[in-house]
Amino acid sequence: MNFYKHHIGDYDADTSHLSWLEDMAYTRLMRLYYRREQAIPADVAQACRLVRATSKQEREAVQTVLSEFFVLSDDGWHNKRCDEEIEQANAKTGANRRNGAKGGRPRKAETEEKPTGFILGSENVTQNNLSQTPDSRLKEKPPNPPLGGDEAPVKKSRRDTAVSFDTFVERCKAAGERALSDYRPVWDYAERACIPRDFIELCWLVFRDRYGKGGARESKRYTDWRKTFRIAVEDNWLKLWAHDQAGQCYLTTQGRQAENTYREDA
């Protein structure tokens, strides 16, 4: 695709909490998505190369945007809005190609009336210029809700549902849930990847202090903190462990430092 619709209001509403670098990362990821018409590669390092994210801060911005606005599938990181736009564009292109094979779009009869009551081909008909921006004043206003009735619920944007890490923890306590222990996906992944349970618990402590009150990334907001932590484990954001040639998982230097720091908690 060489063109895609960019709805400024929707974009600003969903991304106003992003930093400058994160906003640039999201823009470049979308351009890559539309140009290739396929999901962003699952390998974050490869995705960073494709959007020219070279510094540590730029790579972190790419990872942040992927985890918040994209969903990881078998074939890569998917964005629902991008997939919908690509599907619509391909459908339109296919229709144009079929019409072209038939000699172009069939003409309407000259005496056919438009819904306005004007006759096609008459001087009363004003042709729309597709390059002009439609006047929003001409759009039909939505009907008012019936008196005494309930208004239709307003769909919340990601920005409205994203919360801080501390708020997420407080909500878990209020619901009688355990923030980490009750989340099976991360434990299932750790078992498949042969990552010891105590490594995951250590990672959670570092993650908690980084995103919690007073942490370096306290300002971050996510709609699903458990999913964010799972991605942090899968991609080894904190670089706490590695695997040797035999497939055994061991703590890195950073992991050893964290273990010493959190020895009593762990």
Description:
By secondary structure, the protein is mainly alpha-helical. Among the domains are: 8-81, no CATH class; 161-261, no CATH class. It is 47% helix and 5% strand. The chain contains eleven helices and four strands. The longest helix has 22 residues, at 80-101. The protein is elongated and about 80 Å long.
Low-confidence stretches: 116-132
Order of strands side by side in the largest beta sheet? 1-2
Order of helices and strands: HHHHEEHHHHHHEEH
Profile the largest sheet. Answer: 2 strands, antiparallel
What kind of oligomer do you see?
single chain
Task: Give the % helix.
Answer: 40-55%
Helix and strand arrangement:
Elements: H1 8-15, H2 20-36, H3 44-50, H4 56-69, E1 71-73, E2 76-78, H5 80-101, H6 158-161, H7 165-174, H8 184-192, H9 197-211, H10 225-234, E3 241-243, E4 249-251, H11 253-261
Antiparallel strand pairs: 1-2, 3-4
Helix pairs in contact: 2-4, 3-4, 8-10
